[in-house]
Amino acid sequence: MSSAPVFGDAAAIKAARKRPCRGPVWATRYGAGPVDETCATCVHLLRRDFAKRYYKCGLRDTASDATDIRKKDPACLRWGSRDPVACMERFAAMVEADPRR
Ligand code: SF4
To answer: What pTM did the predictor assign?
Structure first.
C-alpha cells in the first residue's frame, strides 16, 4: 500500500489560490478530494456562457457569483471522474485511505 497522501490539506489549498474569486474553494468547506485532481477534471463542472464565461459546480449551481469556481481549484471530496471505471477505483482508494469518509 502506498503511503502517499490521497487527500489534500485544506489550509494549503486555501493558501495556494493566487487570484481572488468570490466563490469559496469548496475543498476547504466540504473536505479535500484527490490531491492530483482539480475541478477541471470533475464530472460536476459546469460552464456558463454569458457576456463572460463562468464556471460552476453542478452540485451548487446558483445565479450568484458567490458560487463561481475556478477550474484550477483543487478537487473537493465530492469530485467525480468523467470515467466511471476510474471513478470507482478512486473511490475504493479513498475509502481504503480513510474509512470514516
Ligand atoms: S464537486 Fe467537482 S466541480 Fe464541484 S467543487 Fe467538487 S471538485 Fe469542483
So the answer is: 0.69
